Amino acid sequence: MPLNKQILLVSRPQGEASVDNFRLVQTETPPLADGQVLVQHHYLSLDPYMRGRMNEGKSYAAPQPLNEVMIGGTVGQVVESRHPRYAVGDWVVGMGGWQEYSVVDANQPGVLRKVDVSRIPPSHYLGAVGMPGVTAWYGLVKIIEPKAGQTITVSAAAGAVGSAVGVLAKQRGCRVVGIAGGPDKCAYVRDELGFDDCIDYREHRDLKSLAGALKAACPNGIDGHFENVGGMVLDAVMLRANAFSRVALCGMIAGYDGQPLPMLNPALILINRMRIEGFIVSEHMEVWPEALAELGELVGSGRYRPRESIAHGIASAPEAFLGLLKGRNFGKQLVKLV
Ligand SMILES: NC(=O)c1ccc[n+]([C@@H]2O[C@H](COP(=O)([O-])OP(=O)(O)OC[C@H]3O[C@@H](n4cnc5c(N)ncnc54)[C@H](OP(=O)(O)O)[C@@H]3O)[C@@H](O)[C@H]2O)c1
Asked: Which residue ranges does the record assign to the Enoyl reductase (ER) domain (predicted)?
C-alpha cells in the first residue's frame, strides 16, 4: 500500500490562523476491507469555510478535531477497489481531506460521486462544477431570484463563488457588477467573465467613496446582492439597495479571523423592505442536480472559463490556505497533488 502524506490540524488559532496550526505527517495507507476503495487525490480544494472549522466555538458545523486530517473536498482516481460499483481508473469527487490518498467505505451514501472528465477537467469539479458553483447557483436563483434587466452585485467577484454568480446572472439577462480586490481581478471579471462592470474596493478606502462607485456603476440601484465578504462592502451596497431588494448572505470572509462585523445601518432593511437571507449550500442538496447541470453545460461549452490558483504538493496546502484568507488567490484555490 502506498505511503500517504497528510496535513493534520494540531492547534487552534488565536486570531489569525498560521502555518503552526498544521503539521505534515506520513503514514501507510491500510489494506482495503470489502466495500472499500483507495482513492489517489489529484486535487485538494481549499475553501474559506475551513477557517471556521479550525475554531472550537459553536457554529453550523462541528469543529475540525485536533490531530486529525484537515477536512477538504478532493477529486481523484480510484487506484484500488473492493467495491463492485467502482473500478480502478474511475474519477471520483469526495471529502478526502488534506492528504494524498483516502480509503473510502463506498457503501456509505453520497461519500463518492463519479464524474466525467471527458468534457470538464477534473479540477473544475471542486470549483465551478462543484460546491462553490452550486453555492452561487443557490444564492442567486433561490434567494435573489433575479429577473432580466435587474441589477445584481456580488463581492469577492473574481473568486470561485463570485465568478459563478456573475456568469449565472448574465445568463438571466441581468446587469452584473462585481466588487473585487485589485485591477487585475477587476479586468478579469469584466473582460473574461463578461460582467458589465467591476469596482476595485481597494481604490475606495471609505464608505462614501465605495458607495459613490456603486452609484456610478448601478445607476438604477441594486435589486439583488450576493454577499461573500461583509463589513464596509455590505454597508455600501445597503446604501444603494432598491425597495424590495434581496441579499443572499453567503459568506463574511472579512470577519473569519474572529472580529465581529457590525452592520452600519440595519434600519435600511426596513426602509427598503429588503429580504436578507443566509444559507449553507450543503443544506440544499435538492438543488445540486439542477445547478450542476447548468454549470456543467456552461463550463463544458466553454462559455464559462473558471480561473484557478494552483499550489503544488500537499506540503504547500497551509500556506495556500492562509493566502486564500488574504485574497492572494485569483479564482478557485486548489492544491495539485499528482
Ligand atoms: N454559505 C455557503 O454555503 C458557502 C459555500 C461556499 C463558500 N461560501 C463563502 O463564499 C465566499 C467566497 O468563497 P470562495 O470559495 O469563492 O472563495 P474565493 O472568493 O475564491 O476566495 C476568497 C476571496 O475573498 C476575498 N477576501 C479575502 N479576505 C478578505 C477580506 N478580509 N476582505 C475582503 N475580501 C476578502 C479575496 O478576494 P479579493 O481579493 O477580491 O478581496 C479572496 O480572493 C466566502 O465568504 C465563503 O465562506 C459560503
From this structure: 17-335
In the CATH scheme, what is the homologous superfamily, with its name and number, of domain 3-127+307-336?
Medium-chain alcohol dehydrogenases, catalytic domain (3.90.180.10)
What separation in Å is there between the alpha carbon of 325 and the centre of ligand 1? 8
* Tens of each residue's pLDDT in the chain, 338 residues: 899 999 999 999 999 999 999 999 999 999 999 999 999 999 999 999 999 999 998 777 889 999 999 999 999 999 999 999 999 999 999 999 999 999 999 999 999 999 999 999 999 999 999 999 999 999 999 999 999 999 999 999 999 999 999 999 999 999 999 999 999 999 999 999 999 999 999 999 999 999 999 999 999 999 999 999 999 999 999 999 999 999 999 999 999 988 889 999 999 999 999 999 999 999 999 999 999 999 999 999 999 999 999 999 999 999 999 999 999 999 999 999 99
Residue whose entry in the numeric block shows the C-alpha cell 496546502:
317
Residue nearest atom 7 of ligand 1, based on CA coordinates? 132
User: What does the domain layout of the chain look like in residue ranges?
Assistant: 3-127+307-336, 131-282
> Does the C-beta of 189 come closer than 6 Å to ligand 1?
no
The separation between CA 75 and the C-alpha centre of its own chain, rounded to angstroms, equals 15
Of 79, 42, 224, 24, nearest in space to 139 by CA? 224
252 CA to middle of ligand 1, Å? 7
CATH for 131-282, options being 3.40.50.1000, 3.40.50.720, 3.40.920.10, 3.40.50.10240: 3.40.50.720
Helix, coil or strand: residue 174 = coil
Ligand 1 contact via 48 beta carbon (within 6 Å): yes
Q: Is 280 in the pocket of ligand 1 (CB under 6 A)?
A: yes
Evaluate: CB of 49 within 6 angstroms of ligand 1. Answer: yes
List the Cα angle 4/91/100 in 5-degree steps.
15
